């Protein structure tokens, strides 16, 4: 009732002001169109739009909107055609007509409609729709032409739906996504890398990464690099599973690890990542100089572990405070390490305890990708700095290992109650040496 009262007051003022029937008819048409928008059922919407068409039969928008309220495609098409005849300069009228031509199975007519739409408005929607109709018609050159016109204009809120459509088309024409994704707007490409990584479309994501301009979007570039590296290593959460994961020790796995290393170091070179470079057979950031974030960086979120300044070393060290309540196996700090299969390596950990009570259970653990234990190096917990070290050979079946600092209470030994300080954790390749056979 309040809406009707307001309408009556508006019409009365229009009459008093001498605005004439055109203004009154427009007001009535607009009011009925609003009622149609508010309706939840198509038959009701159709009634209100018919009233709007009655008041202003020359307004194409009412006829176009009415196409969505009728179930008969032929009837809906006649409404869309009338909208085009009333206003051929509105691309949305042509788009509505194209949709209905597609519904009745006339893709060529739809392509013609959309060609008119792109002449009226050269924006994203017309070109993107025309590209998809060209795909339906099997017109590959025209599909590529229209898609290359549309993609640089992709709106930010349409990025995911556009990528999903390209992924769908890529399933029937492999390589299409890699070819077209670089045409996306430069300000959306980092987001696209993250999404494509989650969908395991890694060739397309890498093609985008290779052309990213990181100078103005360093945080977005950093996120893109982190996600892409993790995806190549098979460590990232995925919305689409890998169809054929690279087997451990295979040439495909070695190539994936090498590519992840290249992307990581490339992100550092582009000033997107503030991190230590990744090197085969070496731990990155052995002295804890960078943030703990990323596949080739330290990762540790346990509140008992923190960085603290050490005046004697003039830098930060890792400090781990244990109160004796830790009874199970706990990993405090970890990092993924790229290695050459069979590579000879030296692992060194420089550490100390802060109490005079002898205790055990804290060690550097090296595992394969699937969690198999390769070696355990107990940490020195003396009051002065000591270095524990071990020589070993990387397994011939892995290109990626995981090193972690873990506590596991040995049987019959008191729990560790101490603040353990770690000055450095280093892994480096060494020349050939005689290795003991593993037990």
Explained architecture:
α13 (202-211) packs antiparallel against α14 (218-232). Among the domains are: 177-274, no CATH class; 305-429, Galactose-binding domain-like (Jelly Rolls). The protein is built from 15 helices and 9 strands. The longest helix is centred in the middle third of the chain and has 19 residues, at 251-269. The chain is an alpha+beta fold and 439 residues long. The chain has a 5-stranded antiparallel sheet, with no helix packed on it. A 4-stranded antiparallel sheet has the order 3-8-5-6. The chain is elongated. A hairpin with a 4-residue loop joins β1 (305-310) and β2 (315-323). The chain has helices spanning 2-16, 21-38, 42-55, 60-66, 73-86, 91-103, 107-120, 124-137, 140-150, 159-172, 176-180, 189-198, 202-211, 218-232, 251-269; strands spanning 305-310, 315-323, 330-338, 344-352, 362-368, 373-378, 386-393, 400-407, 417-429. 44% of the residues lie in helices and 17% in strands.
């Amino acid at each position: 009732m309040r809406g009707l009262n307001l309408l009556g007051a508006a019409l009365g003022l229009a009459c008093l002001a001498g605005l004439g029937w055109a203004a009154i008819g427009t007001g009535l048409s607009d009011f009925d169109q609003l009622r149609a928008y508010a309706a939840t059922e198509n038959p009701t919407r159709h009634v209100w739009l018919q009233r709007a068409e009655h008041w202003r039969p020359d307004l194409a928008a009412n006829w176009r909107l009415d196409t969505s309220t009728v179930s008969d495609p032929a009837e809906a098409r006649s409404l869309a055609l009338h909208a085009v005849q009333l206003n051929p300069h509105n691309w949305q009228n042509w788009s509505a007509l194209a949709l209905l031509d597609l519904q009745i199975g006339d893709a060529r007519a739809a392509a013609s409609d959309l060609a008119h739409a792109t002449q009226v408005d050269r924006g994203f929607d017309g070109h993107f729709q025309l590209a998809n109709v060209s795909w339906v018609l099997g017109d590959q050159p025209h599909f590529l032409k229209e898609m290359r016109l549309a993609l640089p204009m992709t709106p930010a809120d349409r990025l995911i739906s556009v990528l999903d459509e390209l992924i769908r088309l890529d399933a029937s024409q492999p390589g299409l996504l890699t070819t077209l994704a670089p045409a996306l707007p430069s300000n959306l490409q980092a987001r696209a890398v993250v999404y494509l990584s989650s969908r395991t479309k890694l060739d397309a994501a890498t093609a985008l990464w290779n052309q990213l301009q990181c100078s103005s979007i360093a945080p977005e570039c950093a996120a893109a690099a982190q996600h892409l590296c993790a995806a190549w290593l098979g460590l990232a959460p995925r919305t689409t599973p890998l169809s054929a994961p690279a087997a451990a020790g295979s040439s495909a796995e070695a190539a994936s690890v090498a590519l992840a290393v290249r992307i990581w170091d490339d992100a550092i070179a582009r000033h997107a990542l503030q991190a230590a470079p990744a090197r085969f057979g070496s731990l990155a950031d052995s002295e804890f100089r960078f943030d703990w974030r990323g596949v080739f960086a330290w990762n540790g979120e346990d509140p008992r572990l923190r960085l603290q300044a050490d005046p004697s070393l003039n830098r930060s060290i890792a400090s781990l405070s244990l109160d004796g309540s830790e009874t199970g196996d706990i990993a405090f700090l970890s990092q993924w390490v790229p290695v050459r299969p069979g590579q000879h390596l030296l692992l060194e950990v420089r550490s100390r305890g802060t109490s005079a009570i002898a205790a055990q259970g804290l060690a550097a653990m090296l595992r394969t990708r699937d969690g198999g234990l390769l070696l355990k190096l107990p940490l020195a917990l003396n009051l002065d700095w000591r270095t524990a070290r071990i020589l070993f050979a990387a397994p011939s079946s892995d290109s990626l290992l995981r090193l972690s600092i873990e506590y596991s209470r040995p049987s019959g030994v008191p729990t560790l109650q101490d603040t353990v300080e770690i000055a450095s954790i280093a892994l480096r390749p060494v020349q050939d040496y005689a290795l003991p056979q593993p037990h």
